[in-house]
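WARN  no MSA supplied for this record, continuing single-sequence
INFO  ligand: 2-acetamido-2-deoxy-beta-D-glucopyranose
INFO  echoing inputs
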Amino acid sequence: MPIRKPRISKVSINFIVFGVFLSCFPGCILSATVTLDSIVIYDTHEFIKGVKPIVYFTCQGENKTVFPDVKEKNVPYEFKGEESWQPLTEFSSKKCKRCGLYEKDTFKSDDKYDEWELCPSDFNSSDGKYVRFKSKEFNATFSCPNCLPAASPDSKSATAAPKEEKKNGWHIALVILIVVVILVACIVGGVLAYKFWQKKKREQDQARFLKLFEDGDDIEEELGLDHEI
Ligand SMILES: *[C@@H]1O[C@H](CO)[C@@H](O)[C@H](O)[C@H]1NC(C)=O
Ligand SMILES: *[C@@H]1O[C@H](CO)[C@@H](O)[C@H](O)[C@H]1NC(C)=O
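INFO  complex generated
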C-alpha cells in the first residue's frame, strides 16, 4: 500500500516541529535575579551628624530591600550575592523595570539617591555586571549573570527595542515555517489520497467495463443468432 509511508513521515515531521518549538522556550523565557555586588555611598542625606542612614533598593510595585550594613559614607561595601536580603529583584522577561536607590526618613518623604530604568540588557559585560555611578551620590555594581544570553554581544550600544523586534521577527519566521510544513504535509497527504482514490476508481471502471464487454458479447451472440435465423 503506497498510502502507509507518507502517513508515518507526516507524523515525524510534526514531532520535529514540536521539538523545535520546545527547544526555543529556555531562550524565550528569561528568569534572572539581580544582586548587589558592591556599593559606596558618598552622601547620607542626613542633616543631623551621626545619624546612620537606612539605604534601600526597590523597583516599582515591589518590596523594598534595605541594605543593613551600608551605614558609612565613602566606605566600599562588598557582597557575595548570597546575603539574607539578596537578591534585589528578578527579571522574568526582557522588559525593563523602574528601580532606584533611596534613603529612608522617619519624618519626611524618603530621599532619592537615584531612580532609573533597570534593563536585562544593561548587564552586557562578559561577567554580567552593571555599574551605576552617580556623582556625589553613590557607585553601585549590580550582578545578573543570567541576563547575559538576552543581551547579544553584537548590539552592546543598541537599546532594548530593536533587540525585541529581532526576537519577534524570529518568532514570526518560526510560526510561518510551522504553517508551511503543516500545509505541505496536508497537500502531500491530499495528493496521495487522491491518487489512491483515482487508482481505485480506475480499477472499478475497468471491472465494470469488462463486465459490460462480456454482457455485450452475449448480446452480440444473441443478435448473431437472430441474423442466422
Ligand atoms: C513582599 O513582602 C511580603 C511580606 O514580607 C511577602 O509576603 C511578599 O511575598 C513580598 N512580595 C514580593 C513581590 O517579593
Ligand atoms: C565604581 O565601582 C566600580 C566597581 O567597584 C569601579 O570599577 C569603578 O571604577 C567605580 N567608578 C567610579 C566612577 O568610581
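Confidence is low (pLDDT under 50) at residues 1-8, 11-28, 153-160.
INFO  checksum written, moving to next record
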